[in-house]
Amino acid sequence: MRDHSHFRYEEVATFITGLVDSGTLPPGSRAPSLRDISRQRQISVSTALQAYRLLEDRGVLEARPQSGHYVAKRAAIRLEAPAISKPPSKATPVAVSAMLLKLQQYSTDPRLVPLGWAFPSAELLAAGRLDRFLARAARTKGVGHNTYTVPKGDLRLRQEIARRALRWGQALSPEDIVITCGCTEAVTLALNIVAQPGDTIAIESPTYFGLLRSLEVLGLKVIELPTDARSGIDLSALKRVLERGSVKACLFSSSFNNPLGCTMSNAKKLKVLTLLARYRVPLIEDDIFGDIYFGPQRPTPFIALDRGGNTIYCSSFSKTIAPGYRIGWMAMKTEMQKQRALERKLAFTLSGPPLLQAAFADFLSSGGYDNHLRRIRRVFEDTVDRMIRAIDRSFPTGTKVTRPAGSFVLWLELPKSMRTRVLFDQALEHGICFVPGDVFSANGRFGHCLRLSCGHGWDARIEKGVLKLGELACAAAAR
Amino acid sequence: MRDHSHFRYEEVATFITGLVDSGTLPPGSRAPSLRDISRQRQISVSTALQAYRLLEDRGVLEARPQSGHYVAKRAAIRLEAPAISKPPSKATPVAVSAMLLKLQQYSTDPRLVPLGWAFPSAELLAAGRLDRFLARAARTKGVGHNTYTVPKGDLRLRQEIARRALRWGQALSPEDIVITCGCTEAVTLALNIVAQPGDTIAIESPTYFGLLRSLEVLGLKVIELPTDARSGIDLSALKRVLERGSVKACLFSSSFNNPLGCTMSNAKKLKVLTLLARYRVPLIEDDIFGDIYFGPQRPTPFIALDRGGNTIYCSSFSKTIAPGYRIGWMAMKTEMQKQRALERKLAFTLSGPPLLQAAFADFLSSGGYDNHLRRIRRVFEDTVDRMIRAIDRSFPTGTKVTRPAGSFVLWLELPKSMRTRVLFDQALEHGICFVPGDVFSANGRFGHCLRLSCGHGWDARIEKGVLKLGELACAAAAR
Questions:
Q1: Chain A residues closer than 8 Å to B347 by CB
Q2: Contacts of range A473-478, beta carbons closer than 8 Å, 24 or more positions apart
Q3: CATH of the domain spanning B142-365
Q4: Which of A311, A377, B176, B413 is in Cβ range 3.0-4.6 Å of A306 for a Cys bridge?
Q5: What is the ipTM for the molecules in this complex?
């Protein structure tokens, strides 16, 4: 299904940017005239003008009076994408929690330039309409909701989530869904369903540190699979570990792996599912960034492609509208998984706050969430583009950076000699926060990498922070 | 510290009820005159009259015109308390989740007489003032709180909780406290801190099934200790399992064990702590019912008596004001425990909803919570007394029932031949819900016991439900 959220002028801007980044339009060359581009792309001249203004604003094009648009000198992004990762193929216990706890103290410090934690900024989310639904629910529904929800969570909220899942072609029933405390609880419950302590889980490499933390406290080991920043995991590596019978389950991202930004194609997802079905290994998928896609179509989650019913889906509203509401969910198709999910939900947290769930259901059913998503997708896409360009301007030669087609994080690979843990301490002194790379691996890999968040949109403070960080990285690289 | 919440007339009512139940004042005998009792107890005649009216209302006394007050025929409770439990002293894996899930489907069914789940009724809690604080917070603090809290949870809420803990003489710092999703998450995190899967935890017998569920999903085994409905666990049994080195930690209630209602005296708690310190075994205490005491003084939690710092305290506001807010907390004193608690909190649920926490802090700091507690303590005490009398009137000879000095649950031991699981199905057909006894044990014990909740206050529907249940039990006992 085509998503009309992607406006024509943005498509044209993406098209021109592609020509620039590929070298087809070299720096200093003349861009197609507005008249030409409007004819070629079958758009109005005013839409073409809107696209060119966006590109001027992003520093890709420069307008010269009486002469037209030219490619800016620094317009092309010279940075390569990171190469495929090469983790060891052995099972490893996870021990990242203590380090993460130290880093976490900086996660909510408002004095720091927020390039670290993948939190969307509350100002940017502008969730006041949702808050008004909560205020109304608190005034009018308090007594009815001052109790425990049914174990699965508010029925209307589950209905709204199931309704939205129709868009990716998967008929989820409200009975397939369990509301959780964010995606974190969903993943932790899912892991507790499919694995026992001591078991091994196959994951992407690098992988989101929060998943590693969940794996750690549940006493699980991991095998990290080679993962490409564009196409995702290496299928033959997955096949090898499945053949060895060494993994109990897989935990993959559905879309825009955090931190790499990669999404497997549907064809590749089907191959993964076929492999997993052959070896009867269940899949847990983390789709938390799925709704933040920059292209015309939302990536399809595994569960929508899985005919075998052995996928547990996890997501939340924390990245798109309401990190403060802590509403996530998991979905699964087999009765055994559903029963186990409920048993664990009851044991871990019993129930979520019914008023928040009711208010969220009110908000979703009132409409407007899709408009909200369209708006923030544009903001994140724009910020990602600008941040890549700022990195290109300021980081040392040899730096590689991802070019995600969704989400709002970037993964940087600095020259091998760099230690981003050292850079982290230097950056803190300059009031800048990012996440060093080694917490994205159970094997202590990625010590020369780092993750930057684009969750706060683009402004002078963010830009200054990125440029300063690049300067610090250059100084460190020169030593 | 003396708590002034217990009014003089209630003390007098309790005094007279004690004389009746002990047989000092037999049925049909004349109660002390108002003048006598006011002189003896040093109260005004009007206070004495208030006490006697309460006793009339409860069916303990009858007023005869021109003649004074007499003990009602059915006033004395003939029911004995259950004898001390005698569980096997071996470690047992726990497997109650699947059965609980079946029972749980009835937990929120409004068509059933709610004698089952220990939920306080929302009408009785009347938490409208709290909801108004939430509505205000949602209107005025939405943007600032649409993010993740610091890992420990809202600072002001932790300050309010620490301030309240001063009353039991324990100087808890806000830094000792981690906000959780109810007491359930607190206990689950605490167990995950002190034990590995396969380890054994010593618990009371019977013990709350929710604790058993947490133990089960964490892969822990239990040793059930003999527990007396008045004085709590058998110290010598605890000593034996500690000597054998067979337990990794203990999980005891601080006050009003669910379902027995027993509370260990401070002297006994100190002995428990001394024993645990000698064997370096940590204690997790569940104090969820601590604020619902009927006597003049709140029971003292273990952590307030523990000089060794090896106690993890767990509680919540779910039984006293806001089951729907899902706000619980854990407190501990050592840095190692605090770090581990945070690591696990982050891994399990990351963060609670900041707006709910902020609203709750606003509510607590505005005062009025203590008045609320005084009111609901009286309601629960009254309901417990009336329900015991209704049980006395209707259940089969040989039934034993607890006489809790706090909380709002009763534990009934029926004649040994009874199967309360069978009675449960019969009761459902009559629209009555209770909890069968065998889910309070990992060893399948207590099949002839059941738990009744007094959380909905007393009314004709509840009374009819209890009497009908007694009738069904009599019919079953007669077979």
A1: 97, 184, 188, 210, 213-214, 216-218
A2: A473/A394, A473/A395, A473/A396, A473/A399, A473/A414, A473/A418, A473/A423, A474/A394, A474/A395, A474/A396, A476/A418, A476/A422, A476/A423, A476/A426, A477/A396, A477/A398, A477/A414, A477/A415, A477/A417, A477/A418, A478/A396
A3: 3.40.640.10
A4: A311
A5: 0.90
